[in-house]
Specification:
The structure is a homodimer. By secondary structure, the first copy, chain A, is α/β, with parallel strands linked by helices. Helix content of chain A is 32%, strand content 12%. Chain A has six helices and six strands. In chain A, strands 1, 2, 3, 4, 5 and 6 form a six-stranded parallel beta sheet that branches. Chains A and B meet through helix 2, helix 4 and helix 5 of A and helix 2, helix 4 and helix 5 of B. Chains A, B: Pfam families: Flavodoxin_2.
């Protein structure tokens, strides 16, 4: 299988970089082909703006979706966007490796969604969600946190990881990916607040790498996260009256 | 009072721009001082990277929080970061005006958190959450969506707005802001998917502007969104056994 690792950390030698290496080595050893897509090293510009579109449909008013659709159809998207789309078309599985910064993926990866997942090309009308463009592919997050795992208990200090990743998981599902459960490496202290002494911290890094290495070979046979889909919604996008989840407030 | 509007849309003439104008005019008419902070027009770079730090603590390994703390203490943060911090110190209320892109704020605004809310300067140790730096100030989101309101019903097609804004709300609370309920303008079609005919759409734009204008004068007397805080957590950041919310799974 083909695996794309989208890596979003400014320091290649960071623990995030180490987890990307673990994934690459482990998956290659299992016979897969792996490409590492280092957004920082490639200088990816995450800001969706008029300047990315050479000959605009409307030169006076910048409507991102209008320009995305037109430039996709003309084959005139920015080269880095075309390259990212080609990588996605090639991949069977996409792993996003990043630190949780301000309760979400780093800006360089947030803007990757805004620029790369182009309207008209990778989604439109009913070609979304479980009928989305990438519906035969899998995607997942491998994420590190500064705070320790205990603080992520329900209503705890650091909040709930299911909630922090829900927007990104939903964006991946929006374009059709089957989303696998995230790999979360807690308590990775990247130079700031320190919760533990150095030896406990070092040991934890190794435990996280080992846990990830052990999970990787089985990824392709894992069940994906369930979402509601086209058959669950009425024509207005509202959950059908008959759906069992309508009991919830 | 002093109000800062942080505006994150690439087109000044967009409906988002119109809502920013409504806020500015309405608040000025009520006697407040308002500054519009246009991230796109100012060319804000949302990517946190080594190049923003002139003389690094460690030139071989880039640890963002280490550099943020050191450069804050030395007064050598990038000029645009210093300017944003000054604006926040000046403001009594910060309104973030942006479109919901891929289930969150646009990358230019996501990276604003990463670069501007500097470790050591605006948070550290126990100076977070309800003991945070900005605990005497208010903040809120004014957000537009492409999908219509019905699709945002629980488990509906477009998901739940409480969930989409929860990461950003939590980030604001992390640095001490009292977070007001968001102003959500649904069904604003920025050049892409169209759900309604043109006349319904135009009417809806006006309704959204009117609703916002009517709410604005009372903002300073609104109650803020409740969060758990230092008195609710034990020393590990876990919700105390005695806390009433421990009944939840």
């Amino acid at each position: 299988m083909n695996v794309l690792i989208v890596f979003a950390h400014p320091e290649r030698e960071s623990f995030n970089g180490g987890l990307a290496d673990v994934a690459k080595e482990s998956l290659q050893a299992a016979g897969h082909t792996v490409e590492l897509d280092d957004l920082y090293r490639e200088g990816f510009d995450p800001v969706e703006r008029a300047g990315h579109y050479a000959e605009r449909v409307d030169g006076n008013y910048f409507a991102p979706l209008t320009e995305q659709r037109a430039h996709f159809e003309r084959g005139s998207l920015a080269p880095e966007v075309q390259r990212e789309i080609s990588r996605l078309e090639w991949a069977d599985l996409v792993i996003f490796q990043f630190p949780l910064w301000w309760h979400a993926q780093p800006a360089i990866l947030k803007g990757w969604f805004e620029r790369v997942l182009v309207y008209g090309g990778l989604y439109s009308g009913s070609r979304r969600y479980n009928r989305g463009h990438f519906q035969d592919k899998k995607a997942m997050c491998s994420v590190t946190t500064g705070s320790p795992e205990q603080a992520f208990m329900p209503f705890g200090r650091a909040g709930n990881m299911v909630e922090w990743l829900w927007p990104m998981h939903s964006s991946l599902y929006y374009v059709g990916f089957d989303v696998l459960a995230p790999q979360v490496s807690y308590g990775i202290q990247g130079g700031g607040i320190r919760y533990q002494d150095e030896s406990v911290f070092r040991e934890q890094l190794e435990q996280n790498k080992t846990a990830w290495a052990e999970r990787l070979p089985g990824l392709f046979s894992e069940a994906s996260i369930p979402f509601t889909g086209w058959n669950d919604w009425d024509e207005n996008g509202v959950l059908k009256q008959t759906h069992p989840m309508r009991w919830r407030p």
